[in-house]
């Protein structure tokens, strides 16, 4: 679904130039739940922005198994659901917007999809400020799901939510993965969440992938000292 090879990115010029991503290699297979963990500042969101073509890379290749248009294949959900939603738009208006090119009955489709993320019609007339943090993140998630992407990138989407709501959203993602066969790159600094959701895991440190591990019989094996330390 997604293959990244030798991806590098620096910011700044001259003496202030700083390498943020250093020859990243990463694969997400079709329908796979892949995780990316790493400390704050290790480059996770920068990688996500490059994958979404929101910024240019310096070197490397990103291959997406595109079926149709790029943004029909790949979608992203950002951490800050409040900032991602227009504060003066109702939920319904926010959900209609990505569907503006869709043929057929958009509102019927929205109503049908609401249930998938645990929302209902009473939420449609509300403004983002009239929703809880968990509900806002569900709306945010649904906006991306409406396009039925083959790969969804989630950048710290549960980090600001309490443990219970986190668990609900993680369960929801698992269900969506099963029902829609959607692959995911789930980015988080929360190892617990990533370990419970994902089958493949990348650990990032200072702009490098230092570990790749695949869960075998429910067990993770790590060889790199940094990854081991994290998981201990
Ligand atoms: N536009 C930019 N210009 C200069 N430096 C940047 C820019 N964007 C990010 N950086 C730097 O790149 C590094 C990686 O940032 P990034 O946001 O990718 O980290 P992250 O792993 O997502 O962290 P967090 O877990 O806190 O979200 C940081 O040192 C950051 O200061
Ligand atoms: Mg980030």
Automatic annotation (TrEMBL):
This is Dipeptide/oligopeptide/nickel ABC transporter ATP-binding protein. Residues 2-231 form the ABC transporter domain. Keywords: ATP-binding, Nucleotide-binding, Transport. The keyword Transport applies. PANTHER family: D,D-DIPEPTIDE TRANSPORT ATP-BINDING PROTEIN DDPF-RELATED, TRANSPORT ATP-BINDING PROTEIN. Pfam families: ABC_tran (PF00005). The keyword Amino-acid biosynthesis does not apply. GO terms for molecular function: ATP binding. SUPFAM superfamilies: P-loop containing nucleoside triphosphate hydrolases. PROSITE patterns: ABC_TRANSPORTER_1, ABC_TRANSPORTER_2. Belongs to the ABC transporter superfamily.
């Amino acid at each position: 679904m997604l293959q990244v090879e030798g991806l590098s990115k620096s910011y700044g010029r001259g003496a202030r130039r700083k390498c943020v991503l250093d020859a990243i290699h990463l694969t997400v297979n079709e329908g796979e739940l892949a995780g990316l963990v790493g400390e704050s500042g290790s480059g996770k969101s920068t990688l996500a922005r490059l994958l979404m073509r929101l910024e240019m890379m310096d070197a490397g290749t990103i291959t997406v198994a595109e079926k149709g248009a790029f943004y029909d294949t790949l979608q992203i959900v950002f951490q800050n659901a409040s900032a991602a939603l227009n504060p003066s738009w109702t939920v319904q208006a926010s959900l209609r917007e990505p569907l503006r090119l869709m043929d057929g009955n958009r509102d019927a489709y929205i109503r049908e999809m609401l249930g998938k993320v645990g929302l209902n019609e009473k939420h449609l007339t509300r403004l983002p400020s009239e929703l809880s943090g968990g509900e806002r993140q569900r709306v945010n998630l649904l906006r991306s799901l409406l396009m039925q992407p083959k790969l969804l990138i989630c950048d710290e989407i549960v980090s600001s939510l309490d443990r219970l709501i986190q668990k609900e959203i993680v369960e929801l993602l698992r269900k969506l993965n099963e029902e829609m066969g959607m692959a995911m790159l789930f980015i988080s600094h929360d190892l617990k969440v990533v370990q419970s959701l994902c089958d493949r895991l990348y650990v990032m440190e200072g702009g490098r992938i230092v570990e790749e591990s695949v869960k075998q019989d429910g067990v993770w094996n790590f060889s790199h000292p940094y990854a081991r330390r994290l998981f201990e």
